[in-house]
Amino acid sequence: MTHMTTVSLIARVDMQDAMQGFIHNKSFPELRMSLGGQHSQHRFTENNEQHRFTITASLVTGPHDLTLEFLTRSTIQGAVEVGDLRVQGVPMGMRIYQCEYTAFGSAQTHHGHVYMGWPGRWKYTLHAPTELGTIDVGLQ
């Protein structure tokens, strides 16, 4: 059985301190959010820019990975901070920290990071189906 699930995530680019020249030396990142075979991507173009990624996917019963990842592995690009995660329109609140972040360069996995300081992949595990308009989010 499949369940229509809508997920939105707001990410903000952080080019760091303009006084130290970081903005001029780094490229703006391009990110892709993926869930259930659906993708949404965006290239940032200015410091502190925010973008809302939204995907509506048909998910079979069980766990599914929601990922947010840099499209290039170059370390000379801005960082990204996730500020909001909503499933079926419901904010996840503190459960936003139930994630795994793996930097491409070190391959080390960190739990609970909302700031992606190096290019990498951020992963959440979502469980379908939804009940009463919510969906369980967390690591298994």
Structure description:
- The protein is mostly beta strands and 140 residues long.
- The chain has one domain: Sandwich (Lipoxygenase-1), CATH 2.60.60.
- The chain contains one helix and twelve strands.
- Strands 2, 3, 5, 8, 9, 11 and 12 form a seven-stranded antiparallel beta sheet that branches. Strands 1, 4, 6, 7 and 10 form a five-stranded antiparallel beta sheet that branches.
- The longest helix has 4 residues, at 22-25.
- The protein is elongated, with a radius of gyration of 15 Å.
What is the gist of this entry?
The protein has one helix spanning 22-25, and strands at 2-14, 30-35, 38-43, 50-60, 62-70, 79-87, 90-91, 100-103, 109-111, 115-116, 120-131, 134-137.
List low-confidence stretches: 131-140
- In what range is the share of β-strand residues? over 45%
Distance from first to last alpha carbon: 21 Å
CATH class: Mainly Beta
CATH architecture: Sandwich
Largest sheet: 7 strands, antiparallel
- Number of helical segments with 4 or more residues: 1
- Which fold does the CATH topology refer to? Lipoxygenase-1
Number of domains: 1
Shape call: elongated
Number of extended strands: 12
Cα Rg: 15 Å
